[in-house]
Design goal:
With 203 residues, this protein is mainly beta. 9% of the residues lie in helices and 34% in strands. The chain has one domain: Pnp Oxidase, Chain A (Roll). The chain is globular and about 45 Å long.
């Protein structure tokens, strides 16, 4: 399975036992997948226990899924989140990225979906890129936890319903191939053979 490319996602959740940034938790997963699109979009991923992020999303019932653009900065961030919350430089105000409470839906002052403020990843202002530069997280899904727990040995399979998509538009790209296909930079970060990868050319 090391030779099989997997999608990379950073899952974030809020620990309801704490307040503010200290309540934010996160982890990297390479098991992210879609389960169904109809009648509701449902996603899944696997978590090895014990996990502070798993505890947080199970207690709050909500979480965010960040899909990453293929870059050195996002690969570094994904590797950091794979080492556990205790090792996150983001929590001590270091590194290029930071947690920001997710915005409420529909422009309201509270989140109409009922979700608590969730930790949305973004670049720190001093490390921000230009408006025409790359987008670090092309898709962020706000998900409501499906309460059924599926435990297999030391792993838990998490299921969630996508409630809304926080999509950061990419800059317009010119189609250089003439066949309507996008470049490898438009595809999300992948993981295989203990490394992070940018997808290559089409076949």
């Amino acid at each position: 399975m090391r030779q099989v490319p997997h999608p990379v996602a950073i899952i974030t959740a809020t620990d309801c036992k704490n307040t503010g940034p200290k309540a934010f938790r996160g982890m990297t997963v390479s098991s992210f997948n879609t389960v169904t699109l109809s009648p509701e979009p449902v996603i899944s991923f696997n978590v090895k226990r014990p996990s502070e992020t798993l505890n947080a999303l199970q207690s709050s019932g909500w979480f965010l899924v960040h899909l990453l653009a293929p870059s050195a900065a996002t690969a570094k961030l994904a590797r950091e989140f794979s080492r556990g919350n205790a090792n996150l430089r983001i929590s001590s105000g270091e590194g290029e990225f930071e947690f920001s409470p997710s915005p409420p839906s529909s422009g309201s002052t509270t989140n109409e979906s009922g979700a608590p403020p969730l930790p949305l990843l973004r670049r720190r202002r001093q490390h921000s890129v230009s408006e025409t530069g790359p987008v670090d997280f092309p898709f962020v899904f706000e998900c409501r936890l499906i309460p059924q727990k599926i435990e297999v040995h030391d792993h838990t399979i998490v299921l969630g319903t996508v409630v809304r998509v926080l999509e950061q538009p990419r800059p317009e790209r010119t189609d250089t191939t003439g066949d309507g296909h996008h470049s490898p930079e438009d595809l999300c970060l992948t993981y295989a053979d203990t490394r992070f990868w940018r997808m290559g050319e089409k076949i």
